[in-house]
Amino acid sequence: MSTIKTFDELEVWKVSRDICREIGEIIDAGYLRSNYRLINQIEGSSGSIMDNIAEGFERGTRAEFIQFLGYSKGSCGELRSQLMRLYDRKYINKEKFDELYLKSIIISSMLQKFIMYLQKSEIEGNRKKK
User: Per residue in 33-44, pLDDT tens?
Assistant: First the structure.
């Protein structure tokens, strides 16, 4: 198994980036009309998933990485709630909702599995090396 050297090599970060891009496409296409508060919230939560993975990785310790993966998982839950709001307001159709909702569930599951792996791991991180 090869060692991950940068956060953008992580599969969970790649999938998180993808869902953030898809949310951006919905926003840029004008589907949210002028609901600027919801635009800011959903853009923030979708970006926060990938950003917290990156920040936690760069912190250089296992404990901080786990903490930031938890923040990322929380943002993923927030995104799911906001997707429901998009669907309820008819900003997206059922097919798009189902696609994005499933992707967010997959990301959340990937994050949880990664957290559990790191909790059992003996890897301390770059800042803990002696």
Answer: 889 999 999 999
